[in-house]
Known about the structure:
The protein has a domain at about 80-255. The chain contains eleven helices and nine strands. The protein has helices at about 5-25, 25-40, 45-65, 65-70, 75-80, 85-95, 110-115, 130-140, 155-165, 200-205, 240-250, and strands at about 80-85, 100, 120-125, 145-150, 170, 185-190, 190-195, 210-215, 225-230.
Amino acid sequence: MSYLPLPLLHVLGTLLGHLIYWSSTQYAQRLRENLRAAGLHSDQRSYDSLLNQAIAEAGKSVLELPWVWCRPVDQVYAAVRHIEGWEHVEAAQAAGRGLMVLTPHWGCFEVVGLYFGKYSAMTNLYRAPKLAWLERFMISGRARGHSKLAPADVSGVRQLIKALKRGEGIGLLPDQVPGNGEGEWAEFFHRPAYTMTLSGRLAQSSGAQVLLVSAERLAQGRGYQLRIKPITLDFTSSVPLQINQAMERTIAIAPAQYLWSYNRYKTPSGVTPPTSA
Length: 277
């Protein structure tokens, strides 16, 4: 699959997205419910259009993975056609501050950690996939250039702390549902979502520059556009809520590219459900 050109993979991904949607009732129901509840449409017609686009984008996110993970890394770097906000990265590096790169499940989030690893040391937190055979492909695809991986456990968190102390970068998926005791309920698109507290704790203890970074898919498989937005956190109020609100603003740019099929609103084992549920 990785030998195929990206435009073709996105065309095939569109077909795959619709195939998965029509073959899995549970998947389709979750995608529809999450998208409708987000309220990013004005009427039924705009919702139907957005739903159709979201189905296609979800399929693209699957079939672009072999391309991102298995192509020579220089070709992946070259697929980033435009960058908005790189001056915030340079300013943090000039000041000797560590970088905390928060990347939601929006667009081609796989590209972000790799691209930052082109210029400096980058430690990205990852959770092992349920399919054991997929893990070695994930590790070999993500740990390239100056990018390396840290497991989503205590040892991995220690690696993140050490990286920030060295003034390096770390990467996290802020909308990944954490385990019991590792998050708090915070509103995300009008619904309570169990949201990680790790990013806030690391930002407060390290003084790192917090950046929300996304990689928007360009039309016709032309590549990606990086958007880099600094986040100034107020540690006297809910940091997870502030990060969720920042993600909402980014997702609203191209809402179809968010992974609405992700089970973002689940209650993890052992966690008390939100009072509004």
